[in-house]
Amino acid sequence: MRILIMVAHPDDIDFGSGGSVATWTGDGHEVSYCLVTDGDAGGFDEGISRPDMAVLRRKEQTAAAAILGVTDLHFLGWPDGRVYVTHELRRDLTRVIRTVRPDRVVTSSPTRNLRSMYGSHPDHTAVGEAVMCAVYPDARNPFAHPELLADEGLTAHTVGELWITHMGEGADTYIDTTDAYQRKVEALLAHESQTAHMEDLRGRMWAWGRVQAKAAGFGEDRLAEGYLVLDTR
């Protein structure tokens, strides 16, 4: 199976789906990443210029992806903190979908979570909505974004299923990530500009995984990551 994960920032995948990615690649699935921004507005070192931060975060994401078994990364370079659902963004996401031709697309929720400010970053919700538009109707419609076919030879592609991350109580599918916990943490530590200051990162990720595992009905020693799965055939 080909799986394409499309998110706003470097480290979004590793926080939300790092255990799932390690599990999927371990099972032999092909996983690709699409990062809409370079995360140039992130980090806590004011001595690093924003262009240099963008370069650094691409390097960190590439290193983190390798830890989880992923080498196919698509960086779109949109400005961090200024992502909106536009026709141009939908086109760029459609381009990646038609290039990778995945069976499954994974993205962030397009709706604001009123119980979690961190889970409702405007870039996350904008990317979630734009990805949903790219999956349906854009990528499968040969008449959408005609320049992709005329200029780049990218034919229409229908994605079979769409997985939405960070759904909390709205999740209906859970991946047991217990055995992948250590690799998830290692991937997050590769994002040094974002995680070096965090106290007890391992404990936070363990606690979050336990909440998901409890919702899934897994055993007390298990960890999980939850999704809402949509049939998009």
Automatic annotation (TrEMBL):
The keyword Nucleotide-binding does not apply. It comes from the Bacteria. It is an enzyme of class 3 (hydrolase). Its EC number is 3.5.1.-. Gene3D superfamilies: LmbE-like. Keywords: Hydrolase, Zinc. InterPro entries: GlcNAc_PI_deacetylase-related, LmbE-like_dom_sf. GO terms for molecular function: hydrolase activity. This is PIG-L deacetylase family protein. It comes from Actinomycetospora chibensis.
